[in-house]
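Researcher: I'm preparing a figure for a lab meeting and need a structural model of a single chain. I don't have an experimental structure, so a prediction will have to do for now. The sequence is pasted below. Please return the structure as C-alpha cells so I can convert it later.
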Amino acid sequence: MNSDSHEFSGVTSALTTDGWFVMPDLLSAAQTQALATECRAMHEARQLTPARVGATRTATPLRGDSTHWFQAGAMSAPQQAFTDRLDALRLALNRELMLGLVECESHYAVYPPGAGYTRHIDRLRDSDARVVSAVFYLNEGWQDADGGALRLYLDGGSHRDIYPHAGKLLLFLSAQFEHEVLPATRDRMSIACWMRQRALGPTF
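Model: Understood. Here is the structure written out cell by cell.
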C-alpha cells in the first residue's frame, strides 16, 4: 500500500461508511501556528473581504465571515505547506475511492464574535464539481464554551457539533451533509476547502 494511502486509511474508511471524518494531525503544531499567525495578521490588516455565496459570489446576510482565497503561484510558505498536505490527501482518496478529484480550492475564513453561517449544503446548485468539503481549524486555546461549532446534520434528524480546535481537520461529502457554523464569543479562524472533480456538462 502507498504510504500516503496508509496514513490516510482512516479517512478513506470513514468517508465510505459514514461520509465524514475528523482528522487531528494533518499538519505539525508549528505549521498550524504559522497559518494562524498569517490569517490573524491578514484579518487585522483588513486584507480579508466579506464572504459571498454561490457561483455568482453574491453578498448575503446568511453568513458573517470574511475570506481570502489561496491563489496558485502566489501562496505564502504556510499556505503552500497546507496545500501540499491537502493534495496528498486528495491523491490518496483518488487511489482508494476513485473519486476523480482533480484539484482543491481553499480560503482563510474569519468569523467575528456573534457571526455564523446558516444551514446550507456545499454543492452549488448548478455544479457538481465539489465532492469533498474540508475545514482546517486554526484556533489555539479554544474552549467548547467559546462556541463556534460546525453543526453537521446527519441522517435520521441527529447532528454532530465539531468545535474549531487548532489542528483539527473535518472532512465530509459535499452533496450529502447540510451544516451550519454557530456563533462564537471570539474570532474564529479556519481554512475552508473543497476537493473538486471536473464538472459535468448539461445533459440533453
